[in-house]
Design goal:
The protein is an alpha/beta fold. Strand 1, helix 1 and strand 2 form a beta-alpha-beta unit. The termini are far apart. The chain has a 7-stranded parallel sheet, with helices on one face. The protein is globular and about 60 Å long. It is built from 6 helices and 7 strands, in the order βαββαββαβαβαα.
């Protein structure tokens, strides 16, 4: 198969979609050497080539970087020209593509907590996310709660939404080096037991509730 994957979220900015996309890509390439993977990138992630030297990987640059033009216009053209059999994307799929696609939706919090998002962004998500979900061959999400939300708000058949739980990558493992632990605790002024939170600092993460 000729598989297309959107890698525009893989930037130097550490966030969940980046971590998830990299994890999916790394694991797929470990187990699949038969299919061809077309990684669609834009300017700020064009240096990814050195991390994926596999022979069945092809990098394809999409312009412009602006999603307003890239998603509805540039991507459908590229998918058709590149003869992609199936396309994997995050949240928003090209609205006019004939290429079958799978869309990953981690959550749809904006539907019931819109106050946590900029107004224009929220309006775009409310328009594009349901459209992408209803045309997708499959919708992937990371929890049963998100699956229920997607079925409820987007009115899609339950059987088309598949829960694929997140898994910790090999980077996340206990540190056994006691000197390193003491050095790190000293660096951050920690002298007692502590909680470690590794998410973004945003209101929708509900950090005050955690504390």
């Amino acid at each position: 198969m000729n598989i297309g994957m959107d890698l525009h979220t893989v930037t130097n900015f550490m966030q969940g979609t980046r971590t998830h996309t990299l994890g999916i890509v790394n694991e797929l390439l470990k187990i699949d050497t038969d299919n061809t993977y077309n990684f669609y990138v834009i300017d700020h992630n064009k240096d990814l080539k050195k991390f994926f030297p596999q022979e069945n990987v092809v990098f394809r640059r999409v312009i412009p970087e602006s999603r307003i033009i890239r998603i509805p216009i540039s991507m459908p053209i590229r998918l058709a020209v590149d003869s992609i059999d199936v396309y994997h994307c995050q949240y928003m799929a090209p609205p006019f593509t004939r290429t079958p696609y799978v869309v990953m939706m981690h959550d749809i919090i904006h539907e019931y907590l819109p106050e946590f998002y900029p107004r224009k962004l929220c309006a775009m998500m409310k328009l594009m996310y349901p459209f992408s979900a209803r045309r997708a061959k499959r919708i992937l999400t990371v929890s049963e709660a998100s699956k229920r939300d997607i079925v409820k708000y987007f009115n899609v058949p339950e059987e088309r939404v598949i829960v694929t739980y997140n898994a910790a990558s090999e980077e996340f493992r206990p540190i056994k080096d006691q000197d390193k632990i003491r050095e790190t605790m000293l660096k951050y002024g920690i002298n007692t037991e502590y909680f470690l939170y590794v998410g973004r600092l945003e209101p929708r993460k509900n950090i005050p509730r955690l504390i």
